[in-house]
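Ex. 9. Protein: Malate synthase.
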Amino acid sequence: MSTHTDRLHDREFVRTFFTTPTAVKGEDDSAKMLRRAAQLSGIEAPDVWVPDNEDATAPSMRDEGIENIIDVLSEDGDNVPGEVHPRVVWHRESPETRYQGFQQILELADPENDAVEHLDGVVIPEVGDIDDWKKADEFITIVENEHGLEEGSLAMSVIVESGEAELALGDLREEMGKPSNNLERLFLLVDGEVDYTKDMRAITPTGELPPWPELRHNTSRGASAAGLIAIDGPYDDIRDVEGYHERMTDNQAKGMLGIWSLTPGQVVEANKSPLPPKNGSWLLEVDDREIELEAEDGRYVYEGDAIELEEATDDQYRLSVGGDERELDGDELSQELLDLASYIPSLNDIVDSMEEFEAAKEAGKGAIAMERSVTIVIDGVEVEISNDRMWDEATYQAAQTPITLFQDVYENRPDQHEDLEEMYGEDLVERAMVVG
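Predicted structure tokens for Malate synthase:
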């Protein structure tokens, strides 16, 4: 029995999971949306493209949808920069639907259709307990043998949209690697909050989806334990860019760095979100909100009205935060603002710190202190704050995750090289590819 967490696929990180209807009724070319998606490149193209022959495509159009996937991949598959993982039909409680999914995979993977060379795997929706995952795995194994493909050459991703599937996450680490299955082919664990809400019979006063933080945590944990990649479900308010960013930020703190994208616009936002920012920024926490300070001539200026500061006498200040007023001397004021402040490091900051620690480690030091200082301006009063942060090997490893993600993107998405160099500059990109 295996308990490894080795990743068996080319990608260590997937930022974007972009679904496209496979056949649109009433159009002269029912594959129009597939053809358009296949032409996306650079920052507009997803890491994983999912021609969706399930929920996004009407049942009456799904046979045509499979034909369209084959046509588009055979014609334009070479132009698709990311991986291609069509979603087929499946259901844990319906043998008939599972058989239809098997037939769809069989057709997609037929070498005579000239599409399989562009096919990286398939997405299986509506899975149940771990035995159901094994059924899908067995069907894919049969398809590979039927068409003379190497076993395990087609990846399998599943959509976690039932209580059964969520419980199955805890079984993965033990089940993967058993001689009786090929579950090592698993690639992505994708949350499907809409059907999960239905399966859980959940109700909210507004009818909106619950946020399901527990599901997202459990999926991320299951992915980490089994060497897989966790992806959050669709954010269907496609105009709410700020809400999409908040969702991604919350996910990233759980280790879920990828998200479903419904539009090319969401693809762009999701591709950029996990990457370190171009410029660092300072924040002040006021009333449980973090407010970004404006950078001006090397100083950072607070422009709100929830914090007020005035110099009362020499080295005596009056600070009001959310209506709470205090008299402080210079040192006390610096400490108070330091407690309120936080810093979001840029890619350059992270690379600088890692390079400095690597040099120290090479010189035989196990830990070093790194200082960060800044001038904050509130109501025209300038205050210097600084802090020291100890860097040891654990700190270094934690800082390496965004760099490893950056390197994974750069290595696997040559079509995004120009975008990344435009964002960060060629010199910084070169340093980021070497550090670590």
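Check your answer against this statement. Residues 276 and 347 are 5 Å apart (CA to CA).
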